[in-house]
Design a protein that fits this description.
Number of helices of chain A: 16
Radius of gyration of chain A: 29 Å
Radius of gyration of chain B: 17 Å
CATH architecture of the largest domain in chain A: 3-Layer(aba) Sandwich
Helix content of chain B: 25-40%
CATH architecture of one domain in chain B: 3-Layer(aba) Sandwich
CATH class of the largest domain in chain A: Alpha Beta
Distance between the termini of chain B: 19 Å
Strand content of chain B: 15-25%
Distance between the termini of chain A: 64 Å
Structural class of chain B: alpha/beta
Shape of chain B: globular
Order of helices and strands of chain B: HHEHEHHEHEHEEEEE
CATH superfamily of one domain in chain B: P-loop containing nucleotide triphosphate hydrolases
Largest interface: A-B, 19 and 24 residues
CATH topology of the largest domain in chain A: Rossmann fold
Number of strands of chain B: 9
Oligomer: heterodimer
CATH topology of one domain in chain B: Rossmann fold
CATH class of one domain in chain B: Alpha Beta
Chain lengths: ~700, ~240
């Protein structure tokens, strides 16, 4: 059965670690009657919250994967996508943001807007996700939702508007005043499931009126009728007010703020009502795809259930029955038995089993409609693949995938572990495009690559726990690059003519530094053919290109990939019998290696854009810590008591920085980092690297 | 053109000559004018010249938008390096980036003590050997003589050249013939070099005048004007 689209919400819950996001998700599931008792994240009963399906997440109290869960609230279907909060997993966050139509931004009433909230908010802006805020933990000591509202304005540049005010704070938190109904709401029963409406306590009447005025004032900017009614002093109906707030929220110009305490079961039901009232249904969001048949031209996907199907696989999970693929349907519908095409692999497949996920249980369904989120069984695909009906060749615009910057060798302890490790790696690389793996042909070791220390650590831990792969981990290594700084000529003859079929090829030309323009940033290499008069027969020109490409993969200095080289071939020689594709490839490779060392080669290292945020009193210590790490301070911004420092620091110096930062700031400063660019290493560092590399080579 | 040559031929040399060889460390210089005359461009041009020489610069801004300031530097550099076809522009720019820090204060009415303390922290704990500090958009006209004295003491203690760009906060302020607002007058004795920027209708250019120069020579034309297109200092 296809749900009516107006009655559907796809939302994410996004926030800083420890602001109580998982507890909130848990309460939402409970009130929607999907689970029968509430488990705490750090629970005493050892069961743990239902959404954190992985053991590891339970132990760390954080959510790594985004499980999608469907719940029903007041006849509406809400698909909740739980998003991870740690910065190393931002690819997960970004991918889930893609399939969301709206989000709840959870904030801690004590901690307020922290650096991770800012990162997540920035991502939401990128994907234009309308959001409402929930100020959680109002029962905590030091709770101050008013301060958090100010921070939403000042730090996130949102236009927050309070929909509620708290009745009491800290341990005196009793309930909230609903500024729409102008009633006090209390949450009775064992788990706050019974709502009791009362008159507003006398002590809060004045404040409630003032805040309602503010609400009316802000909402009036989005509706002319409302503005007029206010100017003429007419009574405003909640219907008109709701419409105006919804309009403001959908256009990302207004952020309704709810509050309460998930842990104390207060304020959740009004928040759920807010989701229905102010967040968009699938038809209210514009989704775009790229048409591969039409030069990747952008097409808008109408949320039309009758249109040919377009769906996105946004998440894979390994269940006991095989691979589970979470998908979002953008147009058309999915039915059991339908045939779809994976536009990346061009492979056709049939939909076997189709399910809807409810935290840990699943329900078989026969059809998933437009806008819906569901899961498929037994489909071989990768995260981010697009599925289309026969005849369509769309891809949902490629998501931004950053390049891995850190690598690690992993060594299985026995045969069984090796098998399990292979299984795990196969799974992880499909789930997460920023996690990559390969076997180093020289050391024969398996290398994993990723975005940071914690990113790799989490996968190693998952390998050990979930896949029972006993592995040893090597030292993390930085992904360096090699490059040249000047032009060097080559003229190389490859000759092996000692009886039998021989080999002969001569290539001549030069290599020079090549700076790719913005248009082809990906192309780190350029091949130019300037051969005249058939000095190299045209059929062997591609062989030269191939040979150079092979040489680019491994630099002669440290075995790291080479970037930014233009290879020009302008002369050569051949032999009617002994020249071959192989001979020219070998000649080109050898010619390149020879010329490379003459071209003043150097080593490039990844430079990270690091943003540290913390109380101003630690500014000096933070400056010092960046300075010690060969970092450049780009800027520092001070706002009241908070300092934000933007710096550029070589990745090689960032190992263990989280521990250092924590101890120098008494745990109050945080940092995020991402790859900014590659830059040449100072001579002392590159000498050190070369020395270490040569010793390693000798040692073998 | 090589960097050294570029420094030698810079219009900044002409302007320095007119103020007895430059502002000098431990001194305060002020660029004053109405809004929208091109003070920021001038300031960034002065800073860029220092950076070309390998000196370290802190740019203090109050706008809340660091990106905006960084773009000024990028633009000014691009303008100069392209016009003079600078050799190896990329690596020159890289070095300049390393020698420059933007310090931004978003809070309104921030105290001079706080700014000085942050600058001192950066210089001492961040081991940033600043040669010049530029205050872009600081409301010097609202500051007390005490505040200016503190900045002067900081400049002397740290051996730093300090530049200010000043526009009055209020709109109904009278400007003298050189473009200097009347509200500056109470601090004139604390300022070592005061430059006025004013649009000259005859020349249809912004003219830079030395209003005060190390308490010595009387007011005179610096010999430089601002390029009407880029707002950069030109001979």
């Amino acid at each position: 059965m296809t749900k009516e689209l107006k009655l559907m919400r796809n939302i994410g819950i996004s926030a800083h670690i420890d602001s109580g996001k998982t507890t909130l998700s848990e309460r939402i599931l409970f009130y929607c009657n999907r689970i029968h008792s509430i488990h705490e994240v750090h629970g005493k009963d050892g069961v743990g919250a239902t959404m954190d399906s992985m053991e590891l997440e339970r132990e760390r109290g954080i959510t790594i994967e985004s499980a999608a869960t469907s719940v029903e609230w007041k006849n509406y279907e809400i698909n909740v996508i739980d998003t991870p909060g740690h910065v190393d997993f931002t690819i997960e966050v970004e991918r889930s943001l893609r399939v969301l139509d709206g989000a709840i931004l959870v904030l801690c009433s004590v901690g307020g807007v922290q650096s991770q909230s800012i990162t997540v908010d920035r991502q939401m802006n990128r994907y234009k996700v309308p959001r409402i805020a929930f100020i959680n933990k109002c029962d905590r000591v030091g709770a101050n939702p008013y301060r958090v509202v100010n921070q939403l304005r000042e730090k996130l540049f949102l236009n927050p508007v309070m929909m509620e005010i708290p009745i009491g704070l800290e341990d005196k938190l009793e309930g909230v005043v609903d500024l729409m109904k102008m009633k006090a709401i209390y949450f009775d029963g064992d788990s706050g499931e019974i709502l009791r409406e009362e008159e507003i306590p006398a002590s809060l009447v004045a404040e409630a009126q003032a805040k309602r005025e503010e609400l009316l004032d802000k909402a009036s900017a989005f509706d002319d009728d409302l503005m007029e009614m206010l100017l003429e002093g007419e009574e405003v109906s909640n219907e008109i007010l709701e419409k105006a707030i919804r309009k403001g929220t959908l256009s990302l110009q207004l952020c309704p703020v709810f509050m309460g305490s998930a842990h104390k079961n207060k304020g959740i039901q009004p928040l759920l009502d807010g989701v229905l009232k102010y967040l968009p249904d699938p038809t209210e969001v514009t989704n775009r795809a790229l048409d591969l048949d039409n030069n990747e031209k952008e097409v808008i996907l109408p949320s039309d259930p009758e249109a040919p199907t377009v769906a996105l696989a946004f998440k894979l999970e390994d269940g006991q029955y095989g691979q589970l693929t979470y998908i979002r349907v953008y147009q058309g519908h999915l039915r059991k038995g339908d045939e779809l095409v994976n536009t990346r692999t061009k492979r056709k497949f049939k939909i076997g089993r189709l399910v809807k996920m409810h935290a840990s249980t699943m329900e078989d369904i026969s059809e998933a409609g437009c806008g819906d989120i569901a899961a498929l069984f037994g489909i071989d695909c990768a995260s981010g693949d697009t599925f289309c009906a026969n005849g369509l060749n769309y891809t949902m615009s490629s998501m931004f995938v950053p390049t891995p910057v850190i690598s690690l060798a992993i060594i299985p302890k026995d045969k069984k572990s090796a098998d399990n490790m292979a299984k795990a790696l196969n799974r992880f690389t499909k789930e997460d495009p920023t996690f990559q793996t390969y076997v180093d042909p020289e050391s024969n070791q398996t290398i994993i690559k990723g975005m940071g220390e914690l990113h790799l650590d989490v996968y190693v831990q998952r390998m050990i726990r979930e896949y029972k792969a006993d592995v040893e981990v090597g030292r993390p290594e930085v992904a360096y690059r090699e490059a040249i700084t000047k032009r060097a000529d080559f003229n190389y003859t490859h000759k092996k003519q000692t009886g039998g079929s021989g080999q002969f090829a001569r290539v001549a030309g030069y290599i020079e530094p090549f700076v790719p323009t913005d248009d082809d940033m990906d192309k780190e290499y350029q091949f130019v053919n300037e051969v005249k008069g058939g000095a190299i027969p045209s059929e062997y020109i591609p062989s030269c290109d191939k040979g150079f490409r092979a040489a680019m993969k491994k630099g002669p200095q440290l075995n790291f990939p080479i970037v930014g080289v233009r290879c020009v071939v302008n002369d050569g020689g051949w032999h009617p019998v002994d020249s071959s594709d192989m001979a020219f490839q070998t000649a080109a490779l050898a010619a390149f290696r020879e010329a490379f060392l003459q071209a003043a080669p150097l080593i490039l290292e990844p430079i990270m854009k690091v943003e540290v945020e913390g109380p101003s009193e630690f500014q000096g210590a933070i400056f010092g810590s960046i300075n010690q790490r060969r970092g450049i301070i780009v800027s520092s911004t001070e706002d009241h008591n908070t300092s934000t420092i933007d710096a550029e620091v070589p990745l090689a110096e960032m190992f263990g920085y989280s521990t250092v930062l924590r101890s120098l700031s008494q745990g109050q400063a945080e940092f995020t980092m991402e790859l900014d660019h590659y830059a040449k290493t100072p001579v002392s560092v590159s000498d050190e690297l070369r020395k270490a590399y040569n010793e390693k080579k000798k040692g073998k | 053109m090589e960097v050294n040559e570029l420094i030698k031929n810079s219009p900044i040399r002409v302007f320095e000559k007119s103020i007895n060889g430059g502002l000098g460390k431990g001194n305060i210089g002020v660029l004053a004018s109405r809004h929208g005359i091109g003070k920021t461009a001038c300031l960034v041009h002065i800073a860029t010249d220092k950076l070309f020489k390998g000196e370290h610069v802190v740019h203090v801004s109050f706008s809340g938008n660091v990106e905006h300031v960084l773009n000024w530097y990028k633009e000014v550099f691009r303008e100069i390096s392209e016009y003079k076809s600078l050799d190896d522009a990329f690596s020159v720019y890289e070095t300049m980036r390393e020698n420059r820090v933007v310090m931004n204060f978003s809070q309104k009415n921030i105290s001079v003590d706080k700014i000085i303390s942050s600058l001192t922290t950066l210089i001492q704990q961040g081991s940033f050997q600043a040669d010049t500090v530029l205050f872009d958009g600081y409301q010097l006209t609202k500051a007390t003589p005490e505040d200016v004295k503190k900045i002067k003491a900081f400049a002397q203690a740290m051996n730093i050249e300090v530049w200010f760009s000043v526009s009055p906060a209020l709109t109904d302020v009278a400007f003298d013939e050189y473009g200097v607002p009347e509200t500056m007058k109470p601090y004139l004795d604390l300022i070592d070099v005061l430059l006025g920027l004013k649009y000259n209708e005859e020349k249809s250019k912004v003219i830079m005048t030395v209003v005060q120069d190390h308490h010595k020579s009387p007011s005179h034309f610096t010999g430089v004007t601002l390029d009407p297109r880029t707002m950069l200092i030109t001979e």
